[in-house]
Specification:
Structural class: mainly alpha
Strand order of the largest sheet: 1-2
Largest sheet: 2 strands, antiparallel
Oligomer: single chain
Shape: elongated
Low-confidence stretches: 234-242
Radius of gyration: 34 Å
Strand content: under 5%
Distance between the termini: 73 Å
Order of helices and strands: HHHHHHEEHHHHHH
């Protein structure tokens, strides 16, 4: 594998944070996903209080409920290591990340436009952007009649009245932070906006790492399933294909490839076939270490090497020859001394 290929390939971590197995990491990531999607319930409950939601906000809460149900259905199969459900969980996590990225971008643009509107000279009752009115109402900004930076108080005698004075306030606009109208660039350049951008970028770096861990665990489950299939059928690769590409576990002639699950499984594998089925240097060591780690977690003893080797030779037909026919006549062999 060349340097450029290694540089741009999807990472394949073998542990979660170098402390836990991929299965434990996937369980923790799925738990965080469940807690995130529970917010959709509270968002819909806010409608009962009379809170106005934009169509974009309402669609996000409805999607969160649907994602919550899907995550609950798939999370229970992480420990059972079902190839279909683990692969579906990885694909759904990637899809959910893309959808969340779109929602985050839309609401971030709206937030920066609301911030820009409150720091500009433009006046208007309706905040720009999708969901801008709700963000404007709950953001805590005030809506003054005049947008000024500071106020100068000038005392001057009133015309026609000699003994009295009149205090006049003159507002001076803050030219350093104002603009002619709300704009995305003006909102981003505000001092409080940079901390929000840094926080969002840091959280998305963590999200990308979580997605890589879930994908790596799904790939491990597929590779282990293929290893079991290869020992049972003594053929781990399809004929006529590259030896570097393993057989699709959701092929129509296999048990996992039947019905709608098999069709959906073939579609998910086709989206990243080289990642899911492609073999790499060190995959065997990685799978062996993962299986050993799982056995230590479950308190299981390692299989005896001699038993595994005898079973392999029995299945391949290279074991010891069967016993001689005379020895198969009965359970005991009589030996006499008179020649009979």
């Amino acid at each position: 594998m060349g340097f450029a290929t290694r540089l741009f390939r999807i990472p394949r971590p073998q542990t979660f944070l170098y402390l836990m197995s991929l299965r434990t990491g996937t369980e923790l990531i799925t738990l965080s996903l469940l807690l995130n999607k529970v917010s959709g319930i509270y968002g819909l409950l806010a409608l009962l209080t009379g809170l106005h939601l934009s169509p974009l906000q309402l669609s996000m809460y409805i999607y969160s409920l649907v994602a919550l149900v899907i995550t609950v259905l798939l999370a229970s199969h992480i420990r059972t290591q079902s190839p279909f459900h683990c692969l579906a969980l990885a694909c759904f996590y990637i899809l959910d990340s893309l959808i969340n990225a779109a929602y985050t971008a839309a609401f971030a643009i709206t937030w920066f436009l609301v911030v820009s509107q409150h720091h500009s000279d433009a006046s208007g009752d309706k905040a720009p952007g999708p969901g801008g009115s709700t963000i404007d109402e709950t953001s805590g900004f005030t809506s003054p009649q005049y947008n000024v930076g500071h106020v100068d108080i000038v005392a001057a005698p009133d015309q026609g009245v000699s003994p009295g004075d009149e205090a006049v306030t003159v507002g001076q606009p803050g030219f350093s932070t104002t603009a002619s109208g709300p704009s995305l660039g003006h909102g981003v350049l505000q001092p409080e906006s940079m901390s929000s951008i840094i926080t969002i970028c840091a959280l998305w770096v963590v999200r990308v790492y979580f997605a890589v861990v879930v994908m790596s665990y799904a790939r491990l489950v597929l590779r282990q399933h293929l290893a079991v299939m290869s020992r049972a059928t003594t053929a781990s690769h399809t004929s006529g294909k590259s030896s570097a590409m393993a057989e699709n576990p959701f092929s129509p002639h296999l048990a996992e490839g039947r019905g709608w699950k098999g069709k959906l499984g073939r579609i998910m594998v086709a989206l990243g076939k080289s990642y899911w089925l492609g073999s790499e240097e060190g995959d065997e060591i990685w799978m062996h270490n993962a299986q050993s780690y799982r056995r230590r977690e479950e308190g299981l003893s390692s299989p005896v090497p001699g038993v595994v080797e005898r079973e392999r030779r029995r299945r391949s037909g290279t074991g010891p020859p069967p016993p001689m026919p005379p020895l198969q006549a009965g359970p005991f062999l009589r030996v006499t001394t008179d020649g009979r």
